[in-house]
């Protein structure tokens, strides 16, 4: 190091939201003698990394992709010395990778300082995302449909976690989403998760989803439980569409201390629990999809998680996928895919399930979009 680094957080807060990568690179060159710096952001499907500084195109840097998947820093040989890959993540949300080329291997103190720089940059990018299009443009490897644009703006993120749990969700196809959606919110020891399968196609389906999700958020932010959230959303949809369009939705509220799960099953998303080496479906009583009838009323069912359990929710675009009219993915391949992910963290497991779903379709075009949400309860 040429001199003691200034606090990175203060530096980034004083930087324009679209200039965070440049400010970080200058900081690393000045204080760590970095020879080359690249900020790589993950694309929407979490399969490629797009550079923000040398914007030649998306990269298939295997070490960077491994860092993104494992969320662990790695050190290897670089063009002229040592190359570091540092995960960019914020509250469990995997944003990308910071790649730094140094003339020599960092000592433990320097390595810790570099990890702190990556952490500060991740928080800054997450905060700046609403104030500049730069990071979203890099994430999109092709143009989004209008429906997909609405859906991605509505999402809470792609992962969330702390020492109690790790939660992840994934939408497919990333660039042409119709009406499927997931949402979550953490409040003290309560975690609310919703998975929604909206009716219709294209922009109509997206607008239906926007209405339902915002109605549930409105109720939740006023302190309402999941029954009231479901009822407000159902009334809003019925008022708008008169029962012509509706949204099959699963609402869950999880006690992160005791493991109790309150559930309202208002449609088609399926809920499963992985315990040890076994996967079993949680059988819930299906109630009316949101918006099908006016003044619909809902009831809570309860089940309990045990420490180390994995909770999985999939939309009908996953469990009911039946390319060319053959067996459904849920009947023939879903449980095998879920068992195969048992040793992966939730953030990797959702991608593996979606990859298996794409392979299941082979050359057939999916008839529906798909959602997978995975929660690991660590307690």
UniProtKB/TrEMBL annotation:
* SUPFAM superfamilies in UniProt: PP2C-like (SSF81606)
**Record keywords: Iron included?**
no
Q: PPM-type phosphatase domain: from which residue to which, for each copy?
A: 162-377
Q: Name the Pfam families on file.
A: SpoIIE
- Protein origin, superkingdom: Bacteria
Q: Which UniProt keywords apply?
A: Hydrolase
Do you know which InterPro entries this protein is assigned to?
Answer: Bact_Sigma-Reg (IPR052016), GAF-like_dom_sf (IPR029016), PPM-type-like_dom_sf (IPR036457), PPM-type_phosphatase-like_dom (IPR001932)
Q: EC? A: 3.1.3.16
Report a single Gene Ontology molecular function.
protein serine/threonine phosphatase activity
For whether the record's keyword set contains Iron, the answer is no
**Per its record, how is this protein called by name?**
PP2C family protein-serine/threonine phosphatase
Q: Which organism is it from?
A: Actinoplanes oblitus
